[in-house]
Amino acid sequence: MDENYLLESQTARQLFFDYAKDMPIFDYHCHLPAQEIADDKKFDNLTQLWLNGDHYKWRALRANGIPEDYITGHKSDREKFQKWAETVPFTMGNPLFQWTHLELNRYFGIDTPLKPDTADSIWATCNRMLESGNYSARSFITKSNVKALCTTDDPIDSLVYHEKLKNDETFKVKVLPTFRPDMALEIGHKSFLEWINKLGDIENIAINSLEDFYLALKNRIEDFHALGCRLSDHSLSAAFYSKASEEEISKIFKKRLNRQIIVPEEEVKFRAAILSHLAQEYAKHGWAMQLHVGALRNVNSKMFKSIGINTGFDTIANFNFINDLANILDDLESVGLLPKTILYCLNPTDNYLLAAMAGNFQSHFPGKIQFGAAWWFNDHEDGMLAQMKTLANVGLFSRFVGMLTDSRSFLSYPRHEYFRRIMCNLVGHWVERGDFYTDFDFLGQIIKGICFNNIRDFLGVEID
Predict the structure, then answer these.
(1) 306-314: average pLDDT
(2) CATH (residue range 10-43+146-459)
(3) Which residues lie below 8 Å from residue 272, measured CB to CB, with a gap of 6+?
(4) How high is the pLDDT of residue 340?
(5) What is the DSSP string of 443-460?
(6) Which conformational region is residue 343 in: left (phi greater than 0), alpha (psi within -120 to 50 degrees), or beta?
(7) Is the pLDDT of residue 320 over 90?
(8) What contacts 208, CB < 8 A, 6 or more positions away?
(9) Within 13 Å and on the Cβ side, how many CA atoms surround 52?
(10) In Å, how far are 192, 221, 227, 240, 311 from 236, measured between CA atoms?
(11) Sequence ranges of the domains in the chain
């Protein structure tokens, strides 16, 4: 993993070092807690910074036969780190191997491979550096040349830390909320009524009708917008389109308020209606909408009951969603309120479905409908190449809004470097094979766009 890592041609190297390497980062989809950024959180040791909350690593540890006590259990931080050091050599071929060593090098200057016999020295070196004032949440962001990032926020989450960050003139990075109203669509969920009551309390609205619900959501969108939000996000893992009148949706909502049973057909109708309503609000506000399709969550019920959600027990779903997607995009386009949209699939067999669908609804804005970056189980070299080649084959790769971390870790930004090296190698291959002409001024413009400029312009965020 020297300076030419993943760069297999002279053209690839020139594209990376002259155009990609020093471009800033706009991490437009991540799960970093706004509070930890606002408080400029310090970390006591490398496990707290690097392993806590990282279900990518947790899955690898489990696959290596490590007991759960050393993953999410009560073993000491030092013992947990040792188990990760024991596991890393067995991650050959997994991007965790590359990410681990890029992160150790880029933030701590460590070139030594992490193994059981190097764990002591790496633990001591990193922890000693963490004790200094230059290794806090904000410092990792600024060291990574991040100019803007978008957190992921439920409408019932407090925005107080986003307010604090917006008014903090000492921190120049834009930290913007993202509107993630998954529960708003899930009328059959056991927590739905509790969720809408909290939403009503935040907006000081008694939600007794569908109109009240719409008003509370609209007001919350305004709250997010005032703090710089320009992006929404939805996770879709079940059917999300079925036609129904507004009167029928109102009756379904009333049934739920009265704690009556909602049948699956009604759930789909409600999901479609709320998604459509919200998408129209996004369009009116100039927001972009992200649709993440195809995650099957919490499949290990025993572990879900034991340690909860987002702990590494989700997987790739396989369901027929393309007709639903076509219909809802078409309905929005028909009324002139289809927002800018980024489509992501978790199942790589759906790559061509989304890339082709995006082409049906393009308009005057370059790349208005995006086939989004390789996501989750696909954000490795093979997955990134498959996503980019698919996009290039049926759309405009040059208008791609590029990479994101989708991470809860402050050390994840080398994933952008990893992506940029893979992208430059791909473009370099096209040029050297004769698939595109050697015009480095134009090629550099494309590379810089995918690294940073395209997403900045897509979201319309002014960055100093």
Answers:
(1) 95
(2) 3.20.20.140
(3) 240, 241, 242, 243, 244, 324, 328
(4) 98
(5) HHHHHHIIIIIHHHHHHT
(6) beta
(7) yes
(8) 257
(9) 14
(10) 16, 20, 26, 7, 19
(11) 10-43+146-459, 44-135
What is the side-by-side order of every strand in the sheet holding 340-345? Answer: 231-236, 288-293, 340-345, 369-371
pLDDT at residue number 259: 96
Strand bridging mode 231-236 / 288-293: parallel
Q: Rounded mean pLDDT of 365-375?
A: 97
Span 234-268, pLDDT tens digits: 999 999 999 999 999 999 999 999 999 999 999 99
Residue 464 has pLDDT above 90, yes or no: no
- The band of 392, judged by pLDDT with boundaries at 50, 70 and 90, is very high
Q: How far apart are CA 285 and CA 221, in angstroms?
A: 9
Closest CA to 49 of 113, 130, 118, 139: 130
Per the CB < 8 A criterion, the answer to whether 404 and 28 are in contact is yes
Provide the 8-state DSSP code for 136. Answer: B
In this structure, which amino acid lies at residue 155? P
Whole-number Å distance between alpha carbons of 204 and 84:
47
Pick the range with the lowest mean pLDDT from 130-134, 269-273, 306-310, 397-401: 130-134
pLDDT in tens, 285-302: 999 999 999 999 999 999
Contacts for 178 with CB less than 8 Å, ≥ 6 apart:
29, 150, 151, 152, 153, 229, 231, 232, 233, 290
Q: Which fold has domain 44-135?
A: uronate isomerase, domain 2, chain A (1.10.2020)
Cα gap 54→41, rounded to integer Å: 17
Q: CA-based diameter of the chain, in Å?
A: 67
Q: Which two tokens stand for residue 57?
A: 């690593």
User: pLDDT-based confidence at 323, cuts 50/70/90?
Assistant: very high
Angle among Cα 256, 245, 333 to the nearest 5 degrees reads: 115
Q: Which residue from 126, 139, 204 is spatially nearest to 171, judged by alpha carbons?
A: 139
Tokens of 220: 């919350």
Q: Report d(CA 394, CA 139) in Å as an integer.
A: 40
Q: Which residues contact 306 (CB under 8 A, 6 or more apart)?
A: none
Contact at 8 Å (CB) between 374 and 389?
no
Residue 340: C-alpha distances to residues 75, 370, 380, 454 (Å): 46, 8, 26, 13
In the block, which residue shows the tokens 């991470």? 407
